[in-house]
Amino acid sequence: MIKAILIFNNHGKPRLSKFYEHFNEDIxxxxxxxxxxxxxxxxxxxxxxxEGGMLIGGSDYKLIYRHYATLYFVFCVDSSESELGIxxxxxxxxxxxxETLDKCFENVCELDLIFHVDKVHHILAEMVMGGMxxxxxxxxxxxQVDLQNKMEKSEAGIAGAPARAVSAVKNMNLPEMPRNINIxxxxxxxxxxxxxx
Amino acid sequence: MAxxxxxxxIDRMFDKNLQDLVRGIRNHKExxxxxxxxxxxxxxxxxxxxxxAVKANAVCKLxxxxxxxxxxxxxxxxxxxVMSSSKFTYKRIGYLAASQCFHESTDVxxxxxNQIRKDLSSPNQYDxxxxxxxxxxxxxxxxxxxxxxxxxxxxxxxxxxxxxxxxLIMYKVFLKYPESLRPAFPRLKEKLEDPDPGxxxxxVNVICELARRNPKNYLSLAPLFFKLMTSSTNNWVLIKIIKxxxxxxxxxxxxxxxxxxxxxxxxHSTSAMSLLYECVNTVIAVLISLSSGMPNHSASIQLCVxxxxxxxxxxxxxxxxxxxxxxxxxxKTHPKSVQSHKDLILQCLDDKDESIRLRALDLLxxxxxKKNLMEIVKKLMLHVDKAEGTTYRDELLTKIIDIxxxxxxxxxxxxxxxxxxxVELTRLEGTRHGHLIASxxxxxxxxxxxxxxxxxxxxxxxxxxxxxLTGNTQRNGICEVLYAAAWICxxxxxxxxxxxxxxxxxxxxxxxxxxxxxxxxxxxNAAKLFxxxxxxxxxxxxxxxxxxxxxxxxxxxxxxVQSANLEVQERxxxxxxxxxxxxxxQQKDVEVSEEVCALFAGELNPVAPKAQKKVPIPDGLDLDAxxxxxxxxxxxxxxxxxxxxxxxEPKHSRPRHTEVDExxxxxxxxxxxxxxxxxPFYIKASPSSQKVxxxxxxxxxxxxxxxxxxxxxxxxxxxxxxxxxxxxxxxRQKERAEKKKKDKKKRKEKRSGRGKKHDSxxxxxxxxxxxxxxxxxxxxMPENALPSDDDERDPADPHKAxxxxxxxxxxxxxxxxxxxxxxxxxxxxxxxxxKSPAEDEEGENVSSLEPKKKSxxxxxxxxxxxxxxxxxxKEEKKKKKHKHEExxxxxxxxxQADEPAFQSEETNExxxxxxxxxxxxxxxxxxxxxxxxxxxxxxxTPDSEPEEPKDTEMEETKSSKHKKxxxxxxxxxxEKKKKKKHHHHHHHHxxxxxxxxxxxxxxxEEEPLPPMSNYCLLAENSYIKVAYDIQGNLQDGSQVVVSVxxxxxxxxxxxSMEFNVxxxxxxxxxxxxxxxxxxxxxxxxxxxxxxxxxxxxxxxVQSIIMPQKLKGTLTFIVKNEESSTHEKLDFKLHFxxxxxxxxxxxxxxxxxxxxxxxxxxxxxxxxxxxNMPFHHLLARICFHHHFSVVERIDSCASMYSRSIQGxxxxxxxxxxxQTVSVDAKCDEPTLLGNxxxxxxxxFSQC
Lengths: 197, 1246
Description:
The structure holds two protein chains of two kinds. By secondary structure, chain A is of the alpha+beta class. In chain A, 46% of the residues lie in helices and 20% in strands. In chain A, the strands form three sheets. Chain A has a five-stranded antiparallel β-sheet with strand order 2-1-5-4-3, with helices on both faces. In chain A, helix 2 (83-105) packs across helix 5 (138-172). Chain A is globular, with a radius of gyration of 17 Å. By secondary structure, chain B is an alpha+beta fold. In chain B, 53% of the residues lie in helices and 9% in strands. In chain B, strands 10, 11, 12, 13, 14 and 15 form a six-stranded antiparallel β-sheet that branches. In chain B, a hairpin with a 4-residue loop joins strand 8 and strand 9 (1124-1135). Chains A and B meet through strand 2, helix 1, strand 3, helix 2 and helix 4 of A and helix 1, helix 2, helix 4, helix 6 and helix 8 of B. Chain B: Its main location: cytoplasm. Chain B: Keywords: Acetylation, Coiled coil, Cytoplasm, Golgi apparatus, Membrane, Phosphoprotein, Protein transport, Repeat, Transport. Chain B: Residues 660-807 form the AP-3 complex subunit delta domain. Chain B: One of its GO terms (cellular component) is terminal bouton.
């Protein structure tokens, strides 16, 4: 079982938190902080498994993480999950993010995750459900996510157009447009101006 | 309309959306909190609008804020609104928000049931998908119960996308509602072979999770998984299956043997490291389960170890880590094969990665030998000095202690070295393990006698330098060592070089800042030291030192007398007075040292930590037996007997033999060895050590190796363990040289120190001798100690409830109808819908019950008012009622779909209608039957699963408070209803002479709710009402218990009640010994006005085949203020044959066998004009005549019951258009005839 999936950046700012067990908000924040402290002080070339973390888990639980450019992807899992399997899953995970978000927003970077945390959640839901791995096949995940996004677009129809236009205009003012970002093995060029879609 | 929408969306354009919110937060880095609070205000405004799009946008923003740590539970209702939007876009936002912030105590969750059900059955697969995903995060026991059927249906959905989600979510449903596991399991199993790999993977996932917690129930699936393992190509699935096998093999070694080969092949062939690793892991598990004695598997071990070595040597730190992890598993059973890779593991100790170092540390445990222990520990001490984080340092500390103390200090050759290591460890700042060091110090000092001199010296130094340890007392765990130091100095004070100095050190004012328990030890041991000082000064003409000591005590102790700690205070004031008295005596030149020393005389021996628990119960002592007759339960609850004495612990001390001749010693040793071998709790060293022990007689006569005097006994300041390493090296060399000269015999003698029975290692190490004689006193254990299982499972573990035997379920028809199997109705709502047969039976009752029901309804509604939505909830309830009916239908349909799977298993010949049953159908039937019984909420199987009901209860109590309240209310309601019913029984059955002396039978008996049985009227007059109930006693075939309730109806006090029955030849009232056969029994209570109480009477019955009536009288005194009168009430106790029957569950296969046996006589009756549904009829037979349903098929059912004398009574009940035919078989025809007559009578009354 997966107990929690956390994504935060190099400064410990949460970009996505998904707990498959209930904690109240304060504890959740504490867990994120604690996890960040544990993970961030590790060197780049050490193993990706980590025991400890008082708040979440206990002896049966492990933190498995990957660090991509500015982001940490952390899974807290128990002993029923294969460590290497989860690492692969994180790889798939980030690739799926990149692939799917790529289709929506040209290029992906931390900012996309920040601004579209809801979409990230929806993608994640196709991979992990209630703490159990639902699908590991990247193509299948992407297909399902695309189909759902299509549905969303068709529902928005005419009514959605003005909102999209406004949001595109707002996006133009992005002061911190990223220059060059890497996620995983995929390097991203200098982004284009946001386009109307 | 369209215009309105467009206008709405144009307005909306300028609302903040999620992106704007995020951007805003990023632009307000300085006053983020303030900005967010204004945003929340805006969101609150948006939520008030009618436009669902605006609401969805607001909820979306809230989800983001929740992630940042803001509590958004106040918007729970709005989230539900958004969830119920018809648009997928909004629905998805709603469900996401719900999945992020709903949990079991969110009370609006109960409003979502119908919405979720609607979404689950939506034609749009993504609506369903989103609902399933959401539900997986916030499913509650209520939701699980209400939706289990819907989800089960989805498991066979046409779209694999839905199927896989439905399969996966079932695990969550099982956790919350364990009763669903049984009916759902066959379908889940089917899904293992689903054509879609995703669904298959989901099913494997779920079963693996289930099996991990309760592996034994899933052993029967092993062949199926084996097939999957050899056929599947999906690594993810393979990993799961292989992990599952790892959990199963310990239970079934044969499986392990079969697995080795395919796993080995996989290890050789696969390129995926994750798969390889799991294979190795499982092979290890198999090898462990096969235990030793399997020499041909050494190849497999070698293979594993080799592969692991490759992993560890890999540059990828992850593989290195996992390799070490798996290695530690092998270590437990095959230490030798790991030891050959010592180099590699020691290398890992220096790795820069902390995780890897920690894993290597685990392995070190198995790496040490006498030879290298000092070296390894030295290395670890270096790490301790370098370590940065306290966690890692603490880990190192515990590991050092573990390694050194393992197997009773097997590898320690020089305890002085060990003590200095411990003392060095005290220099660690901020460690949490002070107590660990302390307990080691104590342990070593007590058990290794030879070391005491050295230990005491070290401890005295520690005490002297206590200020170095107590920098920051309260937080600093290390000051715990002072506890040990003080105790050791006190207890072994005769070894102290300068007791006066130590005494002074222990009484310094700074001590008062230590934690209370340590101060207490200080005070006590100061007294011990004082005694020693006095003793040492004895005979000394100059008594100044002794007087100085007394004065010191008198000066310093008042500080402790003022302590806030009670223990310290008490000890200090006690000792202070004592010392004052001693001082007086000293001034008179009286010799006191003898008496003072006597205070602390005697030696303490170590006792094993669990010794007390393991004291066996002596033969013939039954702790559960009553010493006196238990007081009748009718007495008020607060008068429960208390245990008045506790068990005496057998004292046990090891006999000390000091001067015994060799022969005697050898004999004793042999005996003791035998005893130890038989005693599983004797702390043994590795088996090899025993061998060594055997080979070396005459242990007593070894010359004690002198402590190397080059070691200064009192190290100035703190000692350095490093010195010992060097010294040890020299010593060993010297010894080796010496040894060469000595003849073989002598060497042999020398090798084995007295008490060195635990002290040996591998062959290569035998030439290392301990530095000095070591007497490791083993811990004492009581003789014949019993094993006790300490690792019981946490009772709160939700998985415990899922421990359900699923194998029997394979043949659905073969199980008795378990009431818990009914999936759809277990709810309070159901109880409200379905009425008890008693209610149907007595039409007039219904009217009187009506107000009660209403009030309970009102209550429930009141509760719902909290949710501001009375109307809605009412509707919902109605719908639910409706739904229950639908569900039953659906179940039947499902049942038919499942039919082919079960047909082959259908073997029951007795009940032979052509249709076969399925689990689902059976469940429905059970539901239908269980429901009519009063209070049939969460009804449970009678006997087959005794644990299950408890677990359910636990689950339920564990769930939110909210729910508890609800249940409580339900219970109250029910009880009220029940009470009402009692009264009715009394009124209506009064003239029937108590023919229905029944109890609630199947359902009620096992119910976790307070037991309620149907009492019927025995007799009544204007003063008192008496009702009774007869129950058989299964333990004693000749006894029945009659419970009688006496109710005082008048305004006077009833006392001196006496109960008497005119015995017949067959039935006798059991009277206390010494009383005559016609004496009456005094009822042990009095009845104030309006009070009722219950008494029980035991009757002995010889023959149970005939019903019987016994005449009796009750006499009592009615006392009021003016007068007291003697009253008498006659009654007839009716023992029906039914009352001798006991509801006993029966498996259908056992039932069939019983019928086939031919020992039973048959008989039958026909009942005409029975106008009630079949399940009511069955329920009534169960209810009134103590039967249980074995199996029901359509309008035909087999039932079973047993008499207290073991007669089997089998019924086959069929109904066709108002005619019921009951074919019955029993080994006693008369009994059968009477029971049938009684059944007939029951139905003729309705």
